[in-house]
Amino acid sequence: MVKLTIYHAFIFIAVAYILIMSIFPMIYAVFASFTNWHLGLAQLDFTGTANYAQVVADYRLYNSVYVTFLLLALCVPAEMLLGITLAQLMRAKIRFRAIFRTLCLLPLFVAPVAVALMGEVIFYESGGPVNTLLNIIGVNTPPPWRSTLFWAPITTAICDIWLWTPFCFLITLAALEGIPRELQEASVVDGASSFQIFRSISLPLIGSALATILLFRVIDTLRMFDIPMVLMGGGGPGISTETISIYIYKVAFHNFTLGYAAALSLVMLLMIIVVATVFLGRLRRYYE
Fold this sequence. Notes:
Number of domains: 1
Helix content: over 70%
Largest sheet: none
Order of helices and strands: HHHHHHHHHHHHHH
CATH topology: MetI-like fold
Number of helices: 14
Distance between the termini: 43 Å
């Protein structure tokens, strides 16, 4: 007879949590994607692949995929570049370095919804702080940050960059601090410049950290929801900032077609798995 211990209890709790919170919802979503589940309908019918056939012809889905990858292209490279730059600067021996490092990390403690609400105020087009400052320095026609198809994705990207650059900064700084200073000091003695030291020594040694940052930020950006939902009033103007997550939310809780929303969710999951698999394959050399 197997004697149960506190160890087995913790294992049981972990397994139960995974089954209840992850595996069961996934299985039920797969089942729902083959039905006509609609809030308000009493009968649930099996429709086969009808929902997936609708996915193929859904122009709103294609637009949301385009918007999602546009935001990814705007946000992730800028966040990584700024994070690396800040990390390199914060390694210098300057006064109040600890204070500056703390200030660089502050956005990490702000919820994305709060960032979006702040963005509504900061980028308010009629008297907001940004446009007021631009008027002071001589820009008579400031950008319409939230009301045009061109500027809305850029404004969304700016808020996301402000929020997630500290994450890139923190991981990069930790990786840079792990590099033996003897390597850099020897390069200085040999006459190497700061840029040459970073390019030839620091950058190759923090490759695995940068790969990790890239993977996490790409996956997280693919499911972006909070900022465009709140800042742009549900993905506006029009559908110019409607990401995949926002579109699925609208299908489920505005149109109440939960069966089709389940199919879209599985398509989104498949897309993220494919992207993550490709990235891991390309970046495998950094982990070996």
